Amino acid sequence: MIAHHFPPAGGSGSNRALAFARYLPAYGWRPFVLTPGARWAINRDDGLLAEIPAGLRVIRTHSFEPRPRVPPLPLGEAARSAGEGWVRDFNVREDTHPSPQPSPRGRGGPLRRHLGHLKRFPDAHIGWLPFAFAAASRMRYDVAYSSSGPFTSHLVGLLLKRRTGRPWVAELRDGWYRWNRAVFPDYPAWRDPLERRLEAAALRSADRVVLVTDRMASAFRRQYADLAPEHFAVVPNGFDATQFAAQPPDPRNGWEVLHAGALYYGRSLSSFLEAAARLVDADPEFARDFRLTLTGTLDVSASAELRRTPLGHHVHVSGQRDHASTIRAMRSADALLLVSNTTPGAEATVPGKLFEYLAVGRPVLAVAPPDSSTADVLESTGGGRLAPAGDPAAIACVLQQAFRERSNPPLPSEVAVARFDRRLLAGDLACIFDQVVGGAARRY
Fold it and tell me: Which of 355, 366, 334 has the alpha carbon at shortest distance from 419?
């Protein structure tokens, strides 16, 4: 498993890799994980270290990529004894690295911006490549499985494929070239042909490409029409049931709507804030009880939206929390807010938090395109209501209806939600591994 995001890194990608590492042995596959050293962990969450299965082989390497701006705590013996499993370090040193440089769209002239892009092609984690490839080249394995973001993980897989010829499964939790063009429209033009060629080389060289929604798979099948349709498989995002043991909700007053996770480019809160402000002005009962809690990081645009809103004390920003605390907060909320990405192509994706929202069994209020994978999941699970992004009037109607039904809210179907349990999804991934190996002897 070539997993740049793995505990103590936090986030949906890390939790997906962790769950598959936990459950693949039940389907006949013994994984080991290749990841950067803990000092390069993004959104560090040391609580996840205790969930790493005992005996799992985790290979942590050095990297030239910048470390996170907030210095992580030392890994320490306590964290290792809490379940990190078998850890081996390759060329890990204690020398320091500078903080990440400003984004290429930031300060400096054109030359500096171009050099910034060049140093971060295909992404800011390219400094991991030489160490990851060197460590992987010393190992015996049946299948290499890389997951992105970051795309650097697929460069490791591509080099291994060309060197060894062994099966390789590449997983894209988001898109690649077209996705990047939508999220970063100011990328310099010279990146376009390079990134298109890199994507094509990786996807054509992989024995199987895994996507997380049917819409994503359909888009890639159209883009690569010369490849067999079965070259692109789907293993949805989901949740790990072991992280969602039933707990009584914390006592609360009023009616709390909670948004868990980051708000950044393409995920605007402005329409929801405008809708809530309209209801606060028009409905004294709503004004008395409504509270919006934002758990996670906010980019500059999201922070500016909050400064402009008249909601004032109705909004509480709690900042980044560890995963366990976030789950407790979700379970205690009256409703869970989902703000989908509205950049072109993002309608084919589903925010990973939606499946965790469904797992806690609270009603979901989604601000997302009606024709989207998010809408598909909500329809199939009965997990909540959806209002079109950018339509404050429609959002206000959905929000008001949810408030009126607060004493008896519609809840998602437990049977439909259970399809996204990662214990089952690991079986789907194991089937893909079985297919690409084609019955070859396992090198245990």
Answer: 355
pLDDT at site 266: 85
Query: How far apart (Å, rounded) are the C-alpha atoms in residues 347 and 345?
Result: 5
Residue indicated by tokens 């060329």: 91
With a CB cutoff of 8 Å and minimum separation 6, the contacts of 411 are 361, 362, 363, 382
Task: Kindly list the strands in the beta sheet with 364-367, ordered across the sheet, starting from the edge strand earlier in the chain.
Answer: 315-317, 290-295, 255-260, 335-339, 364-367, 384-387
**Between vectors from CA 363 to CA 359 and to CA 366, what angle results, nearest 5°?**
100
Measured between its terminal Cα atoms, the distance across the chain in Å is: 15
The predicted structure's pLDDT at residue 417? 97
Task: Enumerate residue ranges in the chain where pLDDT < 70.
Answer: 70-108, 246-252, 439-444
Q: Which domains does the chain have, with CATH numbers?
A: 12-238+422-437 (3.40.50), 241-420 (3.40.50.2000)
Task: Note the pLDDT tens digit of each residue in 105-117.
Answer: 445 578 887 787 7
Only one residue has tokens 């439909």, namely 416
What count of other Cβ atoms lies within 10 Å of the Cβ of residue 319?
A: 9
Residue holding tokens 């199987």? 208
Cβ neighbors of 375 (< 8 A, separation 6 or more) are 366, 368, 369, 386
Which amino acid would we find at residue 7?
Answer: P
